[in-house]
Each structure stands twice: as structure tokens, then as C-alpha cells.
Write a structure and sequence with these properties.
Layout lengths: L6 H18 L2 H115 L2 H19 L1
Helix pairs in contact: 2-3
Length: 163
Amino acid sequence: MFNPQDPVFWVLVSFVLFMALLTYNKVWSAIGKSLDDRADGIRKELDEARKLREEAQALLEDYKRKSREAEEEAKSIVEQAKREAEAFAVESRKALADSVERRTKAAEEKIGRAEAQALGEVRSAAVSAAVSAAEKVLRAKATGDTATSLIDESIRNLKGRLN
């Protein structure tokens, strides 16, 4: 079984000595410690990655919430602007209607004053014409001091009645 002539025997002896040497120099514990350190480093990296993922997820949720709030606020602003525009349009229509009504009344009053002025001018012209005609007729038919006093008195009375 253990034949020193057999190369397998010497490979076995070499292997056992190599393992003993590794054990004597505490290589196994160094390899274990190295593997443990590496496992700890990987665990820390995984924990850090998990924390970063959780933070990223929280930030994503926060941004989604802020996005929803911004959309709601934008909708609210648009609705408010629509209401204000409608109110402004109603107010503008009312102001325009009031302005048109005031201008119409002012125009009607102006027309009324112009009519009254024209009527006054026509009356005045008619009075002047009537007085002038009456004066001519009375001068032609009436003579003397009586006629002159009668004409002057009639003219004064006529002017007072027609104005």
C-alpha cells in the first residue's frame, strides 16, 4: 500500500507536508480571516447598497408626491385662471353695457338739448317774424301817436308772451 517507489506515494507525502506547513504557518486562519473580511466587506457593501436603494426609493416617492402636488397645483391655478377670466369677461361685458347705456343716455340728452335749442331758435325766429310783420301791418294801418304807442306796447307784450 505505501510503496516508496510509487510516485503517488511521494505526491501524497508532499501534499501532507504542504498541508502541515500551511497549518503550521496559520495560513488557514489567514485565508479564513481574509474570506471573513471579504464577506464582511461584501455585507457592508450590500447594506450600503440596500440603504442607498431605500433612500433612492424614498426620494423617488417624494418626487412622485411632489409631482402629483405640482400637477394638482397647476390644475388649481388653471381653474382659478379660468374662473378669473370668466369673472373678468362678465365684468367687462357689464362695464361695456353700462358704458353703452351711459353714452346712449348722453346722446339722447344731447339730442334733446339740440331739439330744445332748435325749437327755441325756431320760436324766436317766428316771434321776430311775427313782431316784424305785426309792426309793418300796424304802421301801415295805424297812424299818429296812438298808433306808435300801441305798436310799442304790443311789441313789448308779444315778446314777453312768446319767450
